[in-house]
Amino acid sequence: MTSTLSIQGLRVAVGDREVLKGFDLTMSTGEVHALMGPNGSGKSTLAHALTGRPGYRVLGGSVTIDGRELLDLSATARARAGLFLALQQPLEVPGVRPLDMLVAAGADAATVAARVREEAVRVGLRPELLERFVNVDLSGGERKRAEMVQLGVLHPRFCVLDEVDSGLDVDALAAVARRLSAAAAEWECGVLAITHFRRLLVELVPTTIHVVRDGRVVASGGPELAERLELEGYDGFGAPRA
Amino acid sequence: MTTFADSAAAVIDARPGGGRLEAWRAFEEVGLPSSNDEIWRYTPLTELGLEHHVVPTGPSPVAPSDSARRLADGADLVLTVVDGYLAPLGELPKGVHVSSDESGRSHTGRPLAERYARDAFSLLNAALAPATTVVRVEAGTVLSAPVVVLGLAGVGASFPRLRVEVGRGAEAVLVEYLEGGRDGLVVPLSEYAVDADGSLTVVTYQRLDETAWQVARTTGVLERDARLHQAVIGLGGHYDRSRNDAELRGAGATNVLRTTFLGRGDQVHDFRTRQLHLAPRTTSRLLSKGAVAERSRSVYTGLIEIEKGATRTDARQTNHNLLLSSSAHADSVPNLDIRENDVLCAHASSVGPLDALQRWYLESRGVERVDALRLMIQGFFYEMLEALPASLAAPIEADVAAAVGEVARAAVVGS
Question: What is the interface pTM, i.e. ipTM, of the complex?
Answer without folding.
Answer: 0.96
